[in-house]
Amino acid sequence: xxxxxxxxxxxxxxxxxxxxxxxxxxxxxxxxxxxxxxxxxxxxxxxxxxxxxxxxxxxxxxxxxxxxxxxxxxxxxxxxxxxxxxxxxxxxxxxxxxxxxxxxxxxxxxxxxxxxxxxxxxxxxxxxxxxxxxxxxxxxxxxxxxxxxxxxxxxxxxxxxxxxxxxxxxxxxxxxxxxxxxxxxxxxxxxxxxxxxxxxxxxxxxxxxxxxxxxxxxxxxxxxxxxxxxxxxxxxxxxxxxxxxxxxxxxxxxxxxxxxxxxxxxxxxxxxxxxxxxxxxxxxxxxxxxxxxxxxxxxxxxxxxxxxxxxxxxxxxxxxxxxxxxxxxxxxxxxxxxxxxxxxxxxxxxxxxxxxxxxxxxxxxxxxxxxxxxxxxxxxxxxxxxxxxxxxxxx
Length: 395
Ligand SMILES: Cc1cc2nc3c(=O)[nH]c(=O)nc-3n(C[C@H](O)[C@H](O)[C@H](O)COP(=O)(O)OP(=O)(O)OC[C@H]3O[C@@H](n4cnc5c(N)ncnc54)[C@H](O)[C@@H]3O)c2cc1C
Fold this sequence. Notes:
CATH topology of the largest domain: Rossmann fold
Bound molecules: flavin-adenine dinucleotide
Number of helices: 12
CATH architecture of the largest domain: 3-Layer(aba) Sandwich
Helix content: 25-40%
Oligomer: single chain
């Protein structure tokens, strides 16, 4: 959908300019013009005394034309390694495609034939592979241009990518180019039984409700999915599929990645791949309390995470934050110490296999999510645990 001004009717009276809360309307040559700042709020529609402003719904990419063209996942490689979230997306994509009776295709930029084969073995029927080395380092501009071009050519019905820094950066550009909707940070995806629309489910209003979003008019339906919320599909060594080679000859890029410099902290902590996480909240009382968590993490070979309250207090950097506005994790063991269990924290860790909660308040909501609960002072229990584990391991 977009907003259109009929220039032949517009008198340039500026009533619409005043009405726009986003300053998205300018007067050019005596006529109103809608700029890219437009948020489609429609405030201007009823304001124009001449009725020169209208909304235009584009249905050219309608279900009829797009149907049956498949579910796409955009796979991500970093330094030549396929990101785990891509395999999770393939699992989710397969499930959706089976519901729709269609195929699953993966798109891979900067990868190799072997990587494309791996995506097939993880569940893709087809892989659109651009093996050009230019696409090996992530670069917004050519990634967005090539993906938009492929989507326009092939017209998939659904396109998914990870809600990772890469996906979050270039996927909105693709949605904007295609004038498609985009639901960010989905935690669940379903197919509507009646319409076949993709139901894109994500937390909303500070995590207090789960919103179901769907796009009935425009294709493709686009969504980003948080890492670690979907299950991988099955790996099948004998699976075969088609690999479609894609070139970048027709892609113009004004930018080129010269070098990628990794932040040191990024290398040191990768919560999303951790098997065991020891997490602390405001109940740890301060940096000293967090030192107890580092000692426990050390004997367990675990990573340390935190609630937003602990991050806001400045006891630990933001990159350790788990939850709605932090990372989503699903380790085998999550030990939550002095964390109340607010819904915004739970959404980031509730798919952990085993959750142990330590809290001095027996009514704390974290206990409803926990597999095992210990009611007591974390300042006493955490060092006790560390000591016992050391004893058991003879350290
Ligand atoms: C839009 C939005 C996004 C948000 N995103 C996130 C997010 O990504 N991650 C996140 O974590 N939060 C997030 N929050 C904040 C969230 O709502 C909570 O405020 C936050 O999780 C609370 O952190 P906490 O449990 O550490 O602190 P508190 O709620 O203050 O809880 C502290 C807990 O420690 C216990 N305690 C106190 N002393 C001890 C002790 N000595 N031993 C044992 N237990 C003790 C208390 O009983 C209490 O249960 C978000 C909020 C909003 C509105």
